Amino acid sequence: MLNRSDIHTATHLFRPARLTLARELRMLTKSDLAAQIDKTPSAVSQFESGKVRPDSSTVLRLALALNVPPGFFAFESRADFIPIETCHFRSLRSASQRNRRKLLAIGTHLSDLVGLLEQYAALPPENVPAAADSTQPLSDDDVERCAADVRRRWGLGLGPIPNVVRLLETRGIVVCPIEAGSKDVDAFSFWHVHRPYVFLVMDKRSPSRSRFDACHELGHLAIHSRVRPGEPMAERQADRFASAFLLPRESFLRECPDRLNWDHFYELKRRWRVSVAALLHRARDLGMISTATYRRAFIHLNRTGQRTHEEFEPPEETPELIAKAVEIASEEIPMDHIATDSGMPPSTFEALLGLIRLAQDSFPSGGQL
Description:
single chain; mainly alpha; 434 Repressor (Amino-terminal Domain); 4-stranded mixed beta sheet
């Protein structure tokens, strides 16, 4: 049952940004929402800009249309809505703005949750080296040096990285899976309230691809702090960074065959936990195989179906940092208070917990973001 005082309080303390957040999370346009609350798109724009404050009956209709409690609109968020212009998206060209904005709404909620959890759990401090600080294009050698510099500063040596996701979490990067079924976006990253975030599609069929995506996003965080997201140049550089970070030049040149030996390449895959496709790409970039050999190899991978479903995949890597922090916080305050204090609607909180692999006995049915 709705509490009348909640509605009046939400009306009095109405925060326009919270309406935008709830609308983006539901992937609704202003026109979509206007139709559901019997208002004009212009009225919704005025609500979101703060020019007009909705009355209590409109707040109630907004809450019902967006599936949030009225008090959601009065919550003082710890973090502003994440601007899409600040995020590096590793996505298909067909990725819709609605889908991207929904993911950023989830990211905004996660940032609020992190701010709350830091009051109860000691999260690792941010430790992402600024390997490059320039708006100018980097050469391939520059990117190689940046990747080597991050490995050196993190004390990784020149061998394989056992678990990329865990590595990022220990360096203060919040890693969160993207909802299953997302076909438009592979990964994205951003800095928000002085902490880096990486969202990944955790593809159980291809953990090696997820590892590469994670390192691609690390590349953006480390070398593109002053580069406008979405630049094709930046995407190519992030790919080169991921390749060099996972397969250091010195080690790879020593182990890589100089001809197309499939047994050898699959042996390297099992050791380095990198896809054969990425190994071949690295071999070509470093001059170990010719472009003609590289093309012939990919014809074989496509013909045998291994371009999309490779053999000998490494174990899946899943984030643990936020799940553990929630568990620690829940020892001091009830789980439903964590949801309330983080400013999330219950269904969103449940779904987010499901995404970060929390124990299912707390929220067995999951939720819908």
